[in-house]
Amino acid sequence: MARVLILFTHPALQKSRVHARLLARLPQSDAVTLHDLYEAYPDFLIDVGHEQSLLEAHDVVVFQHPFYWYSTPPLLKQWMDLVLEHGWAYGSKGTALHGKWLTSVVTAGGGGDAYRTGGYNRFTVRDFLKPIEQTAALCGMRYAPPWVVFGTHRLRPEDLDRVAIEYARLIEWLAADGLETLEPSTDVDLLETP
Ligand SMILES: Cc1cc2nc3c(=O)[nH]c(=O)nc-3n(C[C@H](O)[C@H](O)[C@H](O)COP(=O)(O)O)c2cc1C
Asked: Which of 25, 88, 144, 153 is deepest in the core (most CB within 10 A)?
């Protein structure tokens, strides 16, 4: 089993349609930890030591969030700025994250067709998340492409049920060491639901 840490950032969970549904389906397992950063740190005062301990205790880190201006909500950026310290996460003595996996679970208002070369948004979601991909590389982590729910505004209740079931399957697969079956050269834009 892999221990999975979901770092969840949503500034307005009370208005959420999609993430609220995903979280409701989250598999109950000792191998899976859900950490809601806006709940823990509404004032952005992040407990760096606690966050580093959590990271040390897990094998797979999932950044879960809505896509906001082609990026993450601001608290996740603040978390990265403060938690990924030199000498701990990177640098010659910064080896705490070596070998762990990093991936993202993202929801986007735009449709899948918009996120491609020549499409409305011109780039893939993986392209937009390159800073996270390179952060993982700098920290000696293994990176898996993002798992994305597209076209959130058009999702009907039955679609929400379907993506929530797929999400639960994804998290179970991550906890069952599914990422270890990925080819090291995996260069696809999206992680498919297993
Ligand atoms: C401030 C803000 C910025 C957004 N930026 C984007 C964006 O860049 N690309 C996109 O596809 N959707 C964007 N959206 C739409 C959200 O990603 C979408 O509403 C959300 O993923 C739906 O999930 P939820 O129901 O859990 O909130 C944005 C929404 C807000 C409020």
From this structure: 144
Residue 194 lies in a domain: no
Domain contains 130: yes
Residue 31 belongs to a domain with what CATH number?
A: 3.40.50.360
Give the per-residue pLDDT at 193: 85
The pLDDT of residue 46: 98
- Does the predicted model carry a pTM greater than 0.90? yes
Distance 119 CA to ligand 1 centre (A): 18
31 falls within a domain? yes
Distance 12 CA to ligand 1 centre (A): 11
94-117 average pLDDT score: 98
Mutate to test the pocket of ligand 1, among 13, 16, 67 (most ligand atoms within 8 A of CB): 67
Does some domain include residue 189?
no
The mean per-residue pLDDT over the stretch 5-27 comes to 98
Please report the DSSP string for the chain in residue order.
Answer: ---EEEEE--TTGGG-SHHHHHHHT----TTEEEEEHHHH-TT----HHHHHHHHHT-SEEEEEEE-BTTB--HHHHHHHHHHS-BTTTBSTT--TTTT-EEEEEEE-SS-GGGSSTTSTT-S-HHHHTHHHHHHHHHTT-EE-PPEEE--GGG--HHHHHHHHHHHHHHHHHHHTTGGGGS-TT---SSPPP-
Q: Can you give the residue range of the structural domain that contains 22? A: 4-181
